[in-house]
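step: validate -> pass
step: tokenize input -> pass
step: predict -> running
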Amino acid sequence: MHSSAPAPAPAPTPAPPPHAALPDGLPAADVLEELRALRGSDAPTRGGRTFAYVYDAGIEGLDELAAAAYSAYATVNGLDMTVFPSVARLENDLIRTASSLLGAPGTQGTFTSGGTESIMLAVKTARDHARAERGVRQPELVLPSTAHAAFHKAAAYLGVEPVVVPVDGHTCKADAAAMAAAVTERTALVVASAPSYAHGVIDPVADIAGAAAERGVLCHVDACIGGWLLPYLRRAGREVPPFGMTVPGVTSLSVDLHKYGYADKGASVVLYRDAELRRHQYFAHAGWPGYPVVNPTVQGTKAAGLLAQAWAVLRHVGEDGYTELARQVADASDRLLAGLRAIQDVRVLGEPEAGLVAFTLAGPGTTAGGGDLSLLLHLADEMRLRGWYLQPQLSFEGMPPNLHLTLTPATVGQVDALLGDLAEALTAARALPPVQADPGLVELAAGLDASALGPDEVSAVLAYAGLDGGTGAAAALPQRMAPVLVLLDALPQALKERLLSEFVGSVFRI
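step: predict -> pass
step: emit ->
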């Protein structure tokens, strides 16, 4: 019987070379040049023409100091202060400074990556405190409708139910009596703003905190914007109502150093009435085979460079420096408000108290809330074409759509130019045809279940809105945003949120 060896298997086809994740190494100069080119399409962060997102002290050399301080600590891991003890020294210095400015005896705190993390930690602390001290298992968060969206984000992340209380339609401030009436046995935290972002007005902190204290409930003051400005406005001779940790009933407070502290982003502080309350913020875990973990913040590993640059900026500017910067902001605000009120059909919302200004327009297209949406958005577009960025804010529960401005010392020399261009841009905006959302689409949208929409349906609505730029859509935004924002303003909240999420997802897609 004859047998033969099996035929050898055919040689496998060579796999194609893997796609290179990175190019061959480039010279450092080429890499930096590419970054500089990418920045060319961004709004300017210096020069005082971007009236949102940017806080510019206008101090020569401050950016270089922050960068050098960051560089000195760029390789230091803020996770473990027993390995890097200077991290504890820098943080304690910052908390001591913040406590001296805003605190009361016994105040303790933590350095964080920004206002959202500070707020997240304050809500987490209140939730865990209510659970441990009062047995609350289904916690609620009582907040005015003008409270920052970060509180809703914290509530969503942490399983806390937000209870939203309407504000006074004229002053745009929280209604202290209505806030007090909303407190229940389930309330873990009550919130006040100093000031609110949308309108730059300070809530009646003392009344809100006092009512919360009577019920044994914690009260957080969101001073992310005003915490480093209001005390120095007071020092510069302006009237500022009490809002800090010395107010009876205030148990925590957040303040961003990267806003009116003029540090680079992200740098913030959250303060608590005492170390015992702050204890509920911490996370510790020893039930695994690795190193024992203790995290004061949401982050574990974190860049000590952000801490170092904030420490350096505060020490460089100093007490008198911040007082002078606050005076400049107040003077610029006075001139801007007077100029806005002198323009026909312009209405400033509330009585701005802390560097933030919002105004709306009257006209033939006036909404129920009191603002001509089409004209307002045309104005925003016209200002952007002239090199200014004013932040559009849409209508909300009877509050009118408006344009929002953030004033900093860098705007001091720009207010007159801004007002001149604003008057010219308003004339141009009035000459443009009104834009409005398709009534049929708005009616259809009112009956849609946003959560049930499929990808194709969402893409179709985005395309109709002019937000279908495809992959990397940021570069494909329409030059004029008025038609897009008019449609968004008309959509139900749930659908609006779904479309915005999908749009951002399309921008961050490879």
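step: describe -> The CA atoms of residues 419 and 496 lie 32 Å apart.
step: cleanup -> pass
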